[in-house]
């Protein structure tokens, strides 16, 4: 091999070595660039996820700071909320937060004990069969928000605060009203709630309609009274008379009767005629 050939071969080997080194550096650089790009992409995705989580959180915070009706709420939305609030009047929901299961069990037991301490039970003896017994007891349960159980002529009334005592007193008055001497007053099923139309030409019709229309002010001309009905419900009437007598004894100089106008649904009107009016109807379809 001549000297020139040797030098050329050596140059070729050096060139190949330099080329290999350069390619190695290029590959490493590309890998580093890929890693940097991947890292930047992951950071971008994390930022995007954070922003996506932050937007609903911010929106929820803004909504919580607004007035309940400040948004584009409509009357129907208010009625729905009012209905839900009315349904939840006698329901309390407690959320217990604890660090571990043991603390949670202890807290729940303490809550149950505290709540049970406010429960009271009243007993009424001598409650045997009487007309519309189940309906009357069911009505009293709804009215006083109590639980009534009956066995072998004895009634147990359980509830909070003074409600059981009030229920017991009213049940005693009802039982007295249902008995005339030793004879039990019989209430026929059709007598529980009877609707009687009031003639438009009668004085009673005028006494009912005129005060009602006077409360409508400028809307009187746009209001048409289709029919006036009188409700006859012996059970509710007896309860009302007993309550009125009790109030008169306590406050003989005070006016104890007032007139209430309150809107309601057709089903609500039927329930009122059979079960009576209570606070669960308040705020649903009108203001008193």
From TrEMBL:
Matches recorded under InterPro entries: Mono-ARTD/PARP, Poly(ADP-ribose)pol_cat_dom, UIM_dom
Enzyme Commission number: 2.4.2.-
Cellular compartment(s): Nucleus
Entry's Gene Ontology molecular function annotations: NAD+ poly-ADP-ribosyltransferase activity; NAD+-protein mono-ADP-ribosyltransferase activity; transcription corepressor activity
PROSITE patterns associated with the record: PARP_CATALYTIC (PS51059), UIM (PS50330)
UniProt keyword Transferase, yes or no: yes
Entries under Gene3D superfamilies matching the protein: 3.90.228.10
Recorded family membership: Belongs to the ARTD/PARP family.
Name of the protein this chain belongs to: Poly [ADP-ribose] polymerase
Lineage: Eukaryota, Metazoa, Chordata, Craniata, Vertebrata
């Amino acid at each position: 091999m001549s000297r020139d050939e040797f030098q050329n071969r050596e140059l070729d080997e050096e060139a190949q070595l330099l080329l290999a080194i350069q390619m190695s550096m290029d590959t490493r650089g590309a890998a580093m660039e890929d890693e940097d790009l991947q890292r930047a992409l992951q950071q971008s995705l994390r930022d995007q996820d954070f922003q996506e989580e932050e937007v609903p959180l911010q929106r929820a915070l803004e909504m919580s700071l607004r007035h309940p009706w400040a948004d584009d709420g409509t009357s129907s939305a208010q009625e729905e909320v009012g209905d839900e609030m009315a349904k939840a009047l006698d329901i309390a929901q407690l959320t217990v937060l604890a660090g571990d299961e043991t603390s949670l069990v202890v807290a729940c037991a303490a809550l149950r004990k505290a709540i049970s301490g406010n429960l009271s039970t009243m007993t009424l003896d001598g409650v045997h069969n009487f007309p519309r017994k189940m309906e009357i007891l069911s009505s009293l349960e709804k009215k006083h928000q109590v639980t009534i159980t009956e066995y072998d002529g004895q009634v147990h009334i359980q509830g909070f605060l003074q409600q059981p005592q009030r229920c017991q007193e009213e049940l005693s008055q009802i039982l007295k009203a249902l008995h005339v001497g030793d004879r039990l007053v019989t209430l026929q099923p059709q007598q529980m709630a009877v609707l009687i139309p009031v003639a438009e030409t009668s004085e009673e019709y005028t006494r009912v309609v005129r005060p009602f229309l006077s409360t409508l002010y400028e809307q009187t001309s746009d209001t048409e009274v289709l029919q006036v009905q009188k409700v006859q419900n012996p059970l509710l009437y007896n309860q009302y008379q007993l309550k009125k007598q009790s109030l008169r004894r306590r406050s003989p100089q005070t006016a104890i009767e007032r007139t209430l106008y309150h809107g309601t649904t057709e089903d609500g009107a039927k329930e009122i005629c059979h079960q009576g009016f209570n606070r669960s109807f308040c705020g649903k379809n009108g203001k008193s």
